[in-house]
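Consider this record:
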Amino acid sequence: MSTRDRILDAFEELVIDQGDRAATLDAVAARAEVSKGGLIYHFATREELIDATARRLFDAFEADLARVRATGASTADYYLSDPPDLHSLSRSVSVLLRMPSTPQAAQRFVDRWSQRLADDFPDDPVHAELVRLVGDGLLLQALLGVPLRTELLAQVRSRLLGPEAAATADVPTPARASPGRSA
């Protein structure tokens, strides 16, 4: 594991275990077992740590999406699929939800996903936004551990993506390994 990933893991652990205020640069360096100078080489500020956490989460989704799109599925197919394993990503999401400067990082995340979905529906941005909002709800439900009602999900997919989408509800989504950590 790279030093950068160790630092990000340490930051996430501190925020979750001890809260936002405990995740000082000194504490992160100590938890990651690097010097403060080594930490600052990678991340000069806490804001950079927050941004990197958001980027790492988005990059994990992007890698998944690339694998799925290689099978011929669309971004919308992927985003409205039954997420197989989001437990590994829940730590990154939990950190972002606890940070005061998260709105900026989250907005960048939402903007990038919205653009991916807009590419699927170039003539209907409202439809793309509806797909994103439903997908966000599925993601939240998975992160909370609430079981999905698959028969209803198939109907939602059919309504938003067309009747053929209900038949492809088993979009090949690989198990998601949390970024920087092995599955």
